[in-house]
Amino acid sequence: MMDRRAPALAAQLAGRARRNDARARSHPGYWAFLVHRLSGIALAVFLPIHFLVLAQALAHPASLDAFLDWTRQPAVKLAETLLVLALAAHLGGGVRLLFVEFAGWRAEWQKTALALVAAGALAVALLFALAA
Amino acid sequence: MSDTGAWGSPAATGNPATTARAAAWRFLLQRASAAVLALCVVVHLVTMVYAVRHGLSSEAIVARMNANPAWPAFYGLFVVAAAIHAPLGLRTVVDEWLGLQGGVIDAALGLFALLLLGSGLYAVHALTR
After folding, report:
1. Interface ipTM
2. Average pLDDT of the residues of chain B
3. Domain A28-131 is of which CATH architecture?
4. CB neighbours of residue A113 within 10 Å
5. In angstroms, what separates the C-alpha of A43 from chain B's closest C-alpha?
6. How is domain B16-127 classified at the architecture level of CATH?
7. pLDDT tens digit string along B78-127?
8. Are the CB atoms for B83 and B117 separated by under 8 Å?
9. Where exactly are the structural domains of chain A?
10. Taking the domains of chain B in order of start, what are their residue ranges?
11. Is A98–B31 a contact, with Cβ atoms under 8 angstroms apart?
12. What average pLDDT does range B51-73 have in this prediction?
């Protein structure tokens, strides 16, 4: 059903969508998006460093051990724990997205799913922190 | 935010059918690599907690890696999936947050994929005796 106001209304709605106002940001889905994105960026930056450090094992096992000693400082352990948290959160959030996209998980379960992902990620990070 | 959406493509110069096909391939590759990574990351998290509890040293890492030929194969698959997944994810971020897209970006992300693949497989090789 189209009336004269339809184009103006559509333009107004489009304008709202582009502004991406506070209501969108107060939605748990927005925070899930942000966590997924920021954790993904952090992991993408970390990955080449991780590989290059491990590759050191071929040429100089001693330098890998020197590096592992360096990682025993509390600040480095904290950074490692945050990386584990990022990995676990990206894993949980990503699996949720796969189920939303391919298994048709319904909208009303999403807050629960997000809460479970957050709890799971924190539990994994805590387990790592306690083990480290 | 681009008008073509997260999986949209520059499309300024390309043939629309080819562009759409490329976008569909990126979508599929990103999800397929995500599914592989989901399984790999679960194994990796468990291994990590185990390894840290039992003392991390280059000797321990190499011993664990060579306990079974399935480990190098597993990490090789892990590296390949990550080398596909990370550049495609960054492509979306660079498009949506920086508004950058096009051949130069794709070439840079292609190089990033090769860097991950090369350094990752080299690391697996380095730890395998």
Report:
1. 0.87
2. 90
3. Up-down Bundle (1.20)
4. 19
5. 8
6. Up-down Bundle (1.20)
7. 999 999 999 999 999 999 999 999 999 999 999 999 999 999 999 999 88
8. yes
9. 28-131
10. 16-127
11. yes
12. 91
